[in-house]
Fold:
Amino acid sequence: MNKLKLNQKIIQSSRQYAKKIAKDIQAFIDRHSTVSVERTVLRLLGIDGVDQFDVPIVNRMVDDVLEHGDIRKGISIYIASALNASQLSLDEFTKQYLNHQVSLLDNQLIEKDQVKEVLKPYVDTQLGIIKSNRKYRDNLLEKYGESKTELYVIVATGNIDEDVIQAKAAARAGADIVAVIRSTGQSLLDYVPYGKTTEGFGGTYATQENFRIMRKALDEVGQEEKRYIKLVNYASGLCMPEIAAMGALERLDVLLNDSMYGIIFRDINMKRTFIDQYFSRLINAYSGIIINTGEDNYLTTSDAVLEAHTVTASQFINEAFAIEAHLPEKLMGLGHAFEINPNVEDSFLLEIAHAQLARELFPNAPLKYMPPTKHINGNIFRAYQQNAMFNMVTTLTNQKIHLLGMMTEAIHTPFISDRYLAIKNAQMVQNSMKSLVDDISFKEDGFIQTRAKLVLDKAHELLKEIAEDGMFNTLAKGIFAETKRTETGGKGLSGVFEQSDDYMNVISDQLEAYFDEN
Amino acid sequence: MKIKPYGDTLNDGAVQVSFTLPIPLSAKAVQAAKEVAKSMGLTDPSVVHSEVAGDQFSFFVVYGAVKTSIDLDKIKVVELQKTSKTKKEIEQLIEEKLKRDIVFVGASTGTDAHTVGIDAIMNMKGFDGHYGLERYLGIKAINLGSQVSNEEFVRIAREEKADVLLVSQTVTQKEVHLKNLIELVELLESEGMRKDVLLIAGGARITHELAKELGYDAGFGPGSYAEDVASFAIEELIKRKGE
Structure:
């Protein structure tokens, strides 16, 4: 596909710069870990649940080592040594640990080989569950097939039971993907809430139990509709890898997982985010979960015409980080958005140029295309028209994950009818314009080709600059979304630590071994 | 003067409404939709469209007419005088009358994660061709972004010696934005800071009247730009300085 007649040399060079950027950061990542990474290890050994004060057990254990042990060795060694000394099963040990009958710390630390051996049955069990989840999904997708463009809607009632009702209604109306928006502020919690929840603000807490409830509901409606309905949640935040692990265990299909979103938009420390995103993506890769990156957010803050190249540059960087974490292209849901002011002359052509550019740069990626939000106002009729234009661009440029715009975007979380009308809007466009994309070619050196070329050139320049400056400096300069972040600023830095020489992470060792073989 | 909604004839009172009922579509559901319209006081409601919206829901578009007319003379609203000055005029006023930098601290407070509104007013580029406060000479604009707690907001306002506080509430659910706005006023009062700052609310569901009711100095709804907010704030500061 080369409708834009893009210069392949510029594309290759952009990828080289992005690779250098990611490799520089990866060298840092490989020497560090975080409390969230360590908690994830415990989750993937099978530890779940909370203590009497609702503190997750994984937090209790990691904090215990952080305060009284040497967390730089990693949690794997401590838990394995404790099991070895007590000769208890993990379940039994956890129970006794909560009752203060056994200690995680006062044990002879065992050698790496022994750690691996002691934890093997637990690692095998949990990774086995994830593997069978992946197989189950693959089978259903094979059986039912997938739409060329998948309609993605959001539910956000705060109450998981109410979410289920709305999600089922949306799936029956034609939605292929359902996301449960998280309760706002959850991304800044340094723990994952536990159990079923029926109260939240602007969304519903991401908990493993809520994942399970929604998964079951979507499987039910999928069976009736003879379609596989994908479930989405959000990993970005202070608990990225933990949510990736929970999502893998409960067969989520898509996770919002951006290498920089937390840094820029949630003021989470950059070191913390880069380390966490790597481990979370490693888990995503193993579990076959599509990541969705957050480039669209740049355009809600910055001007969508002037800053279009930052989206492209960030897509290249997210791709490079994804490659480091063994994610195949088919799991790279790189993001972009339809956010140009519709009053700008030829804005529709600009949108086509940007969307087609993303499509051609990442031909095998399930691109996530976000609807207009910034220039939507309370005039719901105008908004409906904007969304129709957005739907057309998706159809004309073959986007894959199509997040539906709501005509009440600027007013409230969607009513059930808003969501329904949005689905019907998209379906009409998809159906009536189905084959138009095959009949379209762009005029040589015309408006669209020229615009795409310009954006790519600017992205290439920017990537060159970042590769020279380094990612940390770039974020400090506020290149993305005009937001400046420093290396030592932001939330979560205290949870970052350098690995000791004898550091061990049984899960990442196992996953890396798997990817080396496959 | 008495008025009614205008469809295509004066005083026809024509309105359109659309809604969903939590029952499957049936003749009974259509009748129920009609009854809903009647209970709203609409005469001759006509359900012009109905369809299944998911399994257990039905969607309706209904037209009808309102019976009663509204007496315009009896309506009193607190209206912000929209005599917006230009960026240049505002900068000039600051220089001549206030003779110092004016500090605006803004945030999307509480659980609201949307910064579209506060960014449009404060950030350099502004919105729709209207530059944001950051670009104004004589204005120090500090945009704290989203999900800022009221406590944090007040703390930074104090640190920065803020003259004007801008609070944005973009998307709301179950009226949580009201609770949040009220909390901020109470917090400022208990900290003894309320009288030292101009407190301004903005957002899709904010009106000047609502803001005044909640104890704010002003409220700006949809379609407001940086110069609207700055005009009000600077004129008010000059007024207060004179007192």
Remarks:
- The first strand of chain A starts at residue 32 and ends at 34.
